[in-house]
Amino acid sequence: MAHPVAVTDSDLDEKVLKAGTPVLVNLWAEWCAPCRMIAPMVDELSQEYDGKISFAKVDVDSNPEISLKYGIRSIPTLLVFKDGQPVDQVIGAVPKGAVKKRLDSALE
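and the corresponding structure tokens:
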């Protein structure tokens, strides 16, 4: 069963930027209610796209360098990486269908 893997400032390069597949990174914080709202949806997507897209999560409070590097000002933010570069971004609690469209385009 695929679930988002925790990523830190120190292992972003290894787990996301050098991944062989596109990666959806969920930037969140424990105190963020909308972050908790979308977490089950992100888990479901990780099951649906298992083997095609990798899923990761970053606690922005514990890993501030990632937020600074990618200009994250609001959470939840979902960043889609492909070939080591961010290619798409979704900010806020959005419907599952909207995220699926972004993931499908990353697979093209």
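(Above: one complete record from the training split.) The first helix runs from residue 12 to 17.
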